[in-house]
Amino acid sequence: MSKSSASRFDAVVVGGGHNGLVCAAYLAAAGLSVCVVERRAVLGGAAVTEEFHPGFRNSTASYTVSLLDPHVVRDLNLAAHGLVVRERTFANFLPLPDGGYLKVGGGIAATQAEVARFSRRDADALPGYYAMLDRVAAVLRRMLGVTPPNIRAGVVRDAAMLVDLARTGGRLRGLSLPERRDLVELFTKSAGDVLDRWFESAPIKAAFGFDAVVGNFASPYTPGSAYVLLHHVFGEVNGKPGQWGHAVGGMGAITQAMAAECAARGVLLRTRSPVARVLVKAGRAAGVELASGEVVEARRVVANVNPKLLCERLVAPEHLPEDFRARIAGYRCGSGTFRMNVALAALPDFTCLPGAHAQPHHASGIVVAPSLAYMEQAFFDARTHGWSRAPIVEVLIPSTVDATLAPPGAHVASLFCQHAHPDLPSVLPGRTWDDARDEVADLMIATVNRHAPNFAASVIGRRVLSPLDLEREFGLVGGDIFHGALSLDQLFSARPVLGHADYRMPVRGLYLCGAGAHPGGGVTGIPGRNAAREIVRDARRRRH
Fold first, then answer.
1. What pTM, to 2 d.p., does this model score?
2. Do the beta carbons of residue 205 and residue 195 sit within 8 Å?
3. Which pick of 255, 429, 489, 523 has the fewest CB atoms within 10 Å?
């Protein structure tokens, strides 16, 4: 019987997002029969490209490329399946309230020249700051593909775990004392504290500090936010570390290439197949029951969903230890993200850099957030009033480098906005995101319009996703794009819960392969790749 027609599989993957597809592809390559079941009508999870206005297509949720693991790109033959990633000309453009601007990227000399307009001292400090980040990011990159040491009750599980422990310790022992200090700072301090030590001018601190609040419902002065900054710089595009880019055809081009490789390896891919529950027999995962009542039997279940969704909605509580359930209940989700796609009749005409014709800054990440103080106030507003009165908005206009997304002469823009309270009724009783959605969307557009006065008038269509919409549409609990906060208590051996960081859940044969596992969120494919390695290891043990 072929893999695609098997009635019982070696593995069923719950969720056809990018990590689920990556995991399925690696499992199939190891000879396992695999079925992927996806609730939505399209594979790709939050990394999809969809038409949101007649003639206009864009990446619906996830919207930019950098963290995608080069091993995944190579091993899954993504380029052969048509994936092309175009690099940004430079990284970020910040229009400023006084009519000025800052451009970051395009080489160290170009950025230094920009920063020198605000502070000669900061321009001189840039090479040292970049070198520090590069050193720590290099350590982080080496740890991404490691299964976190998973010590239970003071006992190391097996010899393989001893090897992982030794490798992890070796990576840290190789650092000099100053480098270890940098590592500790970036894992524990706030981004604001780190940036205040390096720089004096508000614009450059804002440019770097933005990475600390992306998808992170926190102030840039929240302890641990420096790690979120670091998490956003370990990636690469086309072999160039630290670069960001655009997948031609949108983020769906990545997941469609992954799906094509899965199909080539014999994986059965099923859409419109929501899972109602994980089946457990004799203490072991035995498959899933779909909402339709259909049962998909499997020797193991691999979950590419948020850990809270898995353990609170799909697995019956009697199958999980009481303390584990309590820890999952306390697992923190909610990134404060408000996501919009807009169809534009014209490019934004910025007061500080006039012109609605395509210019290099239109192809960068356009960040409306001029200072760390602005970002902190945005967080405080959301905590107390539900959303930021002066929000943080990043605008990307992918149609400037990808004409397939919009009609000739028109454009599409992604607006990634912070902060919106993930639980709006808790701070505004009687209000929900369903009735506040358009009010906040208008505010986001008005925020950009203050810097580009033609922007609001050029919007001819939009799709708006509040934190609640992100949860309902993509299973992002609390709208959390990372499947859980990237804080020290939820990283590495503690992700998602101490004692279960090795992708194995408390139920035998149940695995976690999504962003709620190490190393966390972003379109990386690394959790899927790492989980597949552990699943194959277990499968081989069972055979012998």
1. 0.94
2. yes
3. 429
CA distances from 308 to 24, 38, 119, 476 (A): 22, 18, 46, 10
- Give Rg (Cα) of the chain: 23
Question: Same fold for the domain at 3-48+63-84+249-331+483-543 and the one at 334-478?
Answer: no
**Residue 470, token pair as written in the block:** 């992100």
- Residue-wise over 435-446: b if at least 16 C-beta within 10 A, else e? ebbeebbebbbe
Q: How many C-beta atoms surround the C-beta of residue 542 within 10 A?
A: 9
**CATH label, 334-478, candidates 1.10.10, 1.10.8, 3.90.660, 3.10.20:** 3.90.660
Report pLDDT digits (tens) over 4-47: 334 699 999 999 999 999 999 999 999 999 999 999 999 999 99
Tens of pLDDT, residues 65-85: 988 999 999 999 999 999 999
Q: Are 63 and 396 in contact (CB under 8 A)?
A: yes
Measured from the Cβ of residue 343, the count of other Cβ atoms closer than 10 Å reads: 25
- Determine if the peptide bond prior to 81 is cis (ω within 30°): no
Domain ranges of the chain: 3-48+63-84+249-331+483-543, 89-243, 334-478
Indicate the SS3 state at residue 115.
Answer: helix
Q: Which CATH superfamily is domain 3-48+63-84+249-331+483-543 in?
A: FAD/NAD(P)-binding domain (3.50.50.60)
